[in-house]
Structure formats: structure tokens, C-alpha cells
Design a protein that fits this description.
A: alpha+beta; 11-stranded mixed beta sheet; B: alpha+beta; 12 helices
């Protein structure tokens, strides 16, 4: 005589994997929506990382700027050239050098390219910090351009780049100098001053100091407007957030809605196809709660698979975008993944609501009806 | 291509595609809504840039000047710097065909009020003639020395009203008037007198605004000015506007392409998913149609009509939502202007149809292999 041993049957898993093609296409659909959220979030993190590139690499602890100036590129001020020597004379200042910064629109092969121009004194801080070819500019008709900008427009060392109406000779290609949408282009301080027709002035004074706090106090006491590197960094971030934050949030919101609808579509389709099976389970004694939990588990599992697909698609997209348009910095951080996971969980909960509601009304007699 | 209706010989035209798509109304609605959300994504981003373009070119478009003169190699105002040689204005005024010349100072800098700080274009003009100044004052009067005109949107955001004190390029000025149309997602516009501008940033002229006397066309006038003014670029208002627009379009092109591609991929995935599930759920019906004489081309027509229905309804829904969002946005984010253009909707619709056609390949493949005998088999 054989004895019957009750065993738990992984019904949810079986229902979920009954149609692998459907499951796969559903997971890919959800994955695409999650990839979009990951991509937008990653792009935003990348933008935040990139917009402060110059401020993070000047090597200065402080910057003396014109009154009211908070950002080196978007609101560049004007200081008299004599400010450099007066700043250098303040106790605590290890070194001081003038630097000029401004945005400009370059015309390259018929395209308008926004660039961040830096005029630095040769061999002093404030100029290019890493070169992949050539050298930093030394004379006023020389320029070093961001390597990615050069690659995109087929520029090489020795070519001429028109800057503010004058063709300058490219003597170097720089690395790690692509700010978001505005690559850095380095000239000499005199070269940029000449192009701006601003003789006798500088834009800001970069300051090196071993005791920045005390030096900043003394500089302020001497009547200068002083910004720490951290303040310049924060100002750039604030500006980027004000400009790009709104559209990015709007796009993430739309991506979230699209993702939720895809999860809902897949969950709804699964439920519709499984109505008879679920009816059988009800006829066998499964209560409403059990059936509803199964639907929720299926939706959650589906979203989980979609999340995995999303991460995989994102990694592929990251590689493709890095090769296609390297100027778009996309950074995947733990926080980005966590935020997207949270979005996926919210999508699953929202999307499961519809099938769960329908299941509550599911009649056990469904199991015995002829299917059409 | 077949229309998705039954062939005439089968007893009249029945919109099979539409009926299959909406046989399960919830699934049909979710499919359309999913596609609409994906299309909305592309439409909104496009509208953000179109809105930015509209605002960025406002000063130039609404200027009474026929020709703009800038430093050689400088063809724009946005994110640009321009300095003209001192004698340029006088030389321009002597050119035949010129009615008047208005030199302006132009610089990018911060403005601040009680509620915060904004990036601004500061324009120094001659308030006695008004040339180069705001096109329209919605409140107050033109500036004298120590005064400033600010955009009404910026005034609202900075918590300023006429009579209040504003910080412009580090100097404290009194707000004497409010202008309109000069605030974009990136910056606002502040107008001061030429003397005030010179006191803050020196007396150099950045741009010349030139009005013709009507004896020659703006093109000829621009050419004449370019010929006699060394170290300058002379453009008609239309050329200058187009050049300014190109900054936004060139800067946003790659980002738009990237986002459009993702949005359309999502739309493709949703359409594929919706069509596949709708097709598989009604496979027996398709087999019946085959048994009644419909060939694969007719069945393909039903799928094509489902694509057409899905994309059309989704596009209409996405456009409607985008219009609602663009109308509601000023209350939430006044500087973020969404401009939905007909061209953008048409381009998106065509791209979505291409994506939909690709998405239909999977269900089409399944339909091509469906066996008419399925219609007579017992279900399950």
C-alpha cells in the first residue's frame, strides 16, 4: 500500500514559468522602463560629478572673485590684474595666480559647441592637469582642448581651433576635462584676455594655502570676496540642479509611470491566462487571500526579473553610450541602484493592485467552464 | 497592405484588428497607456528644448533691430562673450541705409533678491531711446543710474517688486520696472542703463543693434556693415535668431536622440507585448479566420491595424497629457516652458509606427504558422 505524503507545490513559480516567452518579453519590457530610470538617475549623478570638474582640479584651496560671483563659468567677474599681487601679499597665501574663465560658443564644422574657456598662466595652477597628447599652451595663440571634444570633431595636435574670432593652434589634448555639455578648452591667461579685450584685468585669483580658513578670514578683512573650493563646488552643483533638475525629475516621473503600466500589463495578462488555473485552486479550497498572495508574489517576481533585466540592459547601454557619446557621463552608484529598486518595488505594488482586486472576485466555477 | 478587416467574400468588413485589440479592454487600455507613457517621455523632452529655444531667442526675436553686430567669430548671445572696438558704433552709424545704431553692454552674471539668487544676462542700454532695452514693460518705468528692470518671472522667484533692492553683479540697484519673456530654464534678463553697466563692468560695447532706414534689405545692410567694420560679425535678425537657436538644438540633439531611442524602445516593447498577448489569446479565432479562407496577408493586416490603433490612440493621449502638463507647469516650475510643436508630434508618430511595425514581427511570425485545424480542436 502506498502512503500519500502531502508536499508543497511551487504553484506560483510554475504558473510564472509556464510560458517562458511571455515571461521573457514581460521582463524585458519592465527592464527597459527600469533601465530608463537607471539611465536618467545615472546621467544625473554623472552630470553632478562632471559639472564641478574644473573646481575640483584647480589645486587651489581658495579663490578670490569679484563681488557677487559664486560660479567661475556662469557668472565670471572681473578683477584688476593688481589683485593677484595684493592677494599674494596676504599672510597665509602660499601661492596666488590669476585665472580667467568664461563660456563661449565655438563653431566647429558647422556645429555650435558650447565650451568652457580657461585662461591660465603657463606653468601655474589652473591650467590642464592631465594631457593625453602634446603640452599645455604657452603663448597666446595656443590652445589645449578636451580630448573627447577633439575626438568628436576630428581635431589633432597642430590643427587650428577658432576661438572668439581667432584661429588658435592646438598644442595639447587634455583628459578628464569634459564638463557636462561644456568641454574645457585651455588658453593662456594673456591669450584669453586678448580675445576678451580686457587688458589689465583678470577673472579670479586662485590661492594655495596651508591654512585656508585663517587665510580666507585675512583676505576678507583685506576687502576681497573669497570662495573656498567647496563653496565653488556647491555653487556649480546648485546651478546644475536648478537647470537640469526639473527636466530630469519630469523624465524620471514619466519613466516611472511607463514602467508601472508595463508591469501592470504583464501582470494583468498573466492573470487573465491563469484565471482557469486559479479557479481550480479555489475549487480545491484555496481561499481569496492565498490566491491574492500568489498574484502579488507573481507580480513581485516578475518585477524582480525585470529589475535584473534592467540592470543588465543598463550595463549594456552604459557601454554603448560610452562608445557612442562619451560626453554623457553615466555613473551607476549604490544609491542609484537602491533608488531604482525602490521604484521597482513601488511599481510592483501599484501594478499588483488591479489583478489582486480582480482575484478577489474570481469564481471557483471558472475552473469548470469551457474556455474560449 | 491589408486593412485588418475581413475580406469582402467573408460577408462584409469586420474590424477584426480593433476587436482583437480591445477584446480584453483592460489589456488594450494598459497597452495603449504604456505606449502613451513612452511617447510622452519623448514628447516632453522635445517640448522642454523647444520651450528653451523659444525663451533663449526672445530678446533677439522681439528686437526692432534689423542687424546685429558682434565681435568677429561671435554669432550668438547665449553663453557668449563679445567685445567690439570702441569706434564701431560711430562707423556703423555712417553706413548708408542705417537709420539708427544702439550699442549695448552684455554680460552674464548673478542677480539676487530676498528669496534667492539667479543667473542673469545683464544688458546695458540707453533708456532715453529705449533701443536695446526690454520690448515691453509690464510695470514701472525705464531705469536711470542705480536702477534695474527685471523680468516679472524672476521678480516673483526672487521675491522682488518695483521699489525693492536687487543685487546685480555685486551692486545694489533699485527695481523700477518689470519686463516679460526674458526668463528661461537657465537664466533671466536684467536691464540697466549704459552708464550703470559701465560703472559695474566697464564701458566696452558688446553688441550693436542696427535699424535700417528701409532703403535696403537687412541682408544688404548686414553685408555693408560687415564690409566696413573690421573685427566684427554682422548678421540680420533672422540669421542671429537662427544662430542662437542652433545652440539649443546642437547642444540638445544628442540627448534628444538618446532619450527618443529609449522612449521608442519602450514603446516597441509595450506594443510587442500587447500584440503578442492579444494574438496568442485569440489564436483560435485567427485559426477560424484561416479556416474560413483568410490568408496570412489578411491576418497580418489585422495585426497592422492593431499597431495603427495602438499608436494613434497612444499618440493622441500622450499629446493631450503633454498639453495638460505644459499648461499646469507654470504653476509648479515657471521657468520650465514646454512647447509642443506639430512637427514634433508628427515625427514621433512616424517613429512610433516604425517601432510598432517592428514590434508586430513577433506576433506575425506566430500567425504565419497558425494551423487552420486549430479551430476544430478541443480547447486546452
Amino acid at each position: 500500500m502506498t502512503t500519500y505524503t502531502p508536499r508543497s507545490v511551487p504553484v506560483t513559480r510554475r504558473l510564472l514559468t509556464a510560458r517562458p516567452l511571455r515571461l521573457f518579453s514581460g521582463a524585458v519590457g519592465i527592464g527597459l522602463a527600469l533601465m530608463l530610470i537607471l539611465l536618467l538617475d545615472g546621467l544625473w549623478v554623472g552630470v553632478q560629478d562632471r559639472v564641478t570638474t574644473y573646481e575640483d582640479h584647480t589645486g587651489a584651496e581658495l579663490a578670490v572673485v569679484a563681488p557677487g560671483t559664486e560660479n567661475l563659468f556662469s557668472d565670471p567677474g572681473v578683477l584688476p590684474s593688481s589683485a593677484v599681487s595684493r592677494v599674494a601679499a596676504v599672510r597665509g597665501v602660499r601661492w596666488a595666480t590669476g585665472v580667467r574663465t568664461t563660456y563661449a560658443i565655438l563653431e566647429l564644422h558647422g556645429d555650435k559647441v558650447a565650451a568652457a574657456l580657461v585662461g591660465a598662466v603657463p606653468s601655474r595652477p589652473g591650467g590642464p592637469w592631465e594631457l593625453r597628447a602634446g603640452r599645455a599652451p604657452v603663448t597666446s595663440d595656443e590652445v589645449a582642448v578636451d580630448g573627447l571634444l577633439a575626438d568628436r570633431h576630428g581635431l589633432v595636435v597642430g590643427d587650428r581651433l577658432p576661438v572668439l574670432g581667432r584661429p588658435l593652434r592646438i598644442v595639447g589634448l587634455t583628459t578628464d576635462t569634459a564638463m557636462f555639455m561644456t568641454p574645457l578648452v585651455f588658453l593662456t591667461h594673456d591669450g584669453l584676455t586678448e580675445r576678451l579685450q580686457a587688458t589689465g584685468t583678470t577673472g579670479a585669483v586662485l590661492v594655495g594655502s596651508d591654512s585656508p580658513a585663517g587665510t580666507a578670514t585675512r583676505l576678507r578683512a583685506a576687502g576681497f570676496t573669497v570662495r573656498t573650493t567647496a563653496e565653488l563646488h556647491s555653487a556649480s552643483l546648485r546651478l546644475a540642479t536648478r537647470i537640469f533638475g526639473g527636466p530630469v525629475r519630469l523624465m524620471v516621473g514619466v519613466g516611472f509611470v511607463a514602467g508601472t503600466l508595463i508591469v501592470a500589463l504583464v501582470a494583468h495578462t498573466l492573470l487573465t491566462e491563469q484565471r482557469r488555473d486559479l479557479g481550480v485552486l479555489k475549487a480545491l479550497g484555496a481561499d481569496d487571500g492565498r490566491v491574492r498572495r500568489m498574484a502579488l508574489a507573481e507580480t513581485a517576481a516578475l518585477t524582480g526579473l525585470g529589475a535584473l533585466a534592467g540592470v543588465a540592459l543598463m550595463l549594456v547601454a552604459q557601454v554603448v553610450i560610452a562608445a557612442w557619446r562619451p560626453q554623457f557621463p553615466i555613473l551607476l552608484t549604490g544609491a542609484t541602484v537602491a533608488r531604482t529598486a525602490l521604484a521597482a518595488a513601488a511599481m510592483a505594488v501599484l501594478a499588483a493592485w488591479l489583478p489582486a482586486r480582480r482575484l478577489a472576485r474570481l469564481d471557483a466555477a471558472t475552473a469548470f467552464r469551457s474556455e474560449r | 497592405m491589408s486593412t485588418g478587416a475581413l475580406p469582402e467574400g467573408l460577408g462584409g468588413r469586420v474590424p477584426v484588428g480593433r476587436r482583437v485589440l480591445f477584446s480584453d479592454r483592460r489589456r488594450g487600455a494598459l497597452t495603449v497607456a504604456g505606449v502613451a507613457a513612452a511617447l510622452l517621455l519623448v514628447l516632453v523632452l522635445d517640448a522642454v528644448f523647444a520651450g528653451a529655444l523659444d525663451r533663449v531667442t526672445h530678446y533677439i526675436r522681439t528686437s526692432p533691430a534689423d542687424v546685429f553686430v558682434s565681435q568677429a567669430g561671435v554669432r550668438t548671445m547665449h553663453m557668449s562673450v563679445s567685445t567690439l572696438p570702441a569706434a564701431t558704433a560711430n562707423r556703423a552709424a555712417a553706413v548708408p541705409g542705417v537709420a539708427w545704431v544702439a550699442p549695448i553692454g552684455f554680460v552674464s552674471g548673478p542677480v539676487g533678491g530676498p528669496s534667492g539668487r539667479q543667473l542673469s544676462y545683464v544688458i546695458g542700454y540707453d533708456p532715453t531711446t529705449g533701443r536695446g532695452g526690454p520690448t515691453q514693460l509690464v510695470q514701472g518705468r525705464p531705469p536711470r543710474d542705480g536702477d534695474a528692470i527685471i523680468d516679472e518671472l524672476a521678480a516673483d522667484q526672487l521675491g522682488l517688486a518695483v521699489g525693492d533692492t536687487i543685487t546685480v553683479l555685486g551692486a545694489s540697484l533699485r527695481v523700477t520696472g518689470l519686463s516679460t519673456g526674458g526668463t528661461s530654464i537657465t537664466n533671466t534678463t536684467v536691464f540697466v542703463s549704459r552708464d550703470q553697466f559701465a560703472a559695474m563692468r566697464g564701458g566696452a560695447t558688446s553688441y550693436l543693434l542696427v535699424r535700417g532706414d528701409g532703403s535696403v534689405s537687412p541682408d544688404i545692410l548686414a553685408r555693408r556693415l560687415g564690409d566696413v567694420l573690421p573685427g566684427t560679425t554682422a548678421q540680420t535678425r533672422e540669421q542671429f535668431t537662427a544662430s542662437e537657436s542652433r545652440i539649443v538644438t546642437d547642444m540638445s540633439a544628442d540627448l534628444l536622440r538618446l532619450m527618443s531611442l529609449i522612449g521608442l524602445l519602450i514603446a516597441l516593447a509595450v506594443i510587442a507585448l500587447g500584440l503578442l498577448t492579444a494574438t496568442l489569446a485569440r489564436l483560435r479565432d485567427y485559426a477560424v479566420l484561416k479556416a474560413l479562407g483568410a490568408n496570412t496577408a489578411h491576418l497580418a493586416g489585422t495585426v497592422a491595424s492593431q499597431v495603427l490603433w495602438t499608436v494613434t490612440i497612444a499618440l493622441v493621449a500622450a499629446t493631450a497629457v503633454a498639453i495638460v502638463v505644459s499648461a499646469a507647469l507654470p504653476g509648479v516650475a515657471p521657468t520650465l516652458q514646454l512647447t509642443i510643436t506639430g512637427g514634433s508630434v508628427i515625427r514621433l508618430g512616424l517613429a512610433a509606427l516604425v517601432a510598432g511595425t517592428l514590434a508586430a514581427l513577433l506576433p506575425l511570425r506566430r500567425l504565419a504558422t497558425v494551423d487552420a485545424a486549430t479551430a476544430f480542436r478541443e480547447s486546452r
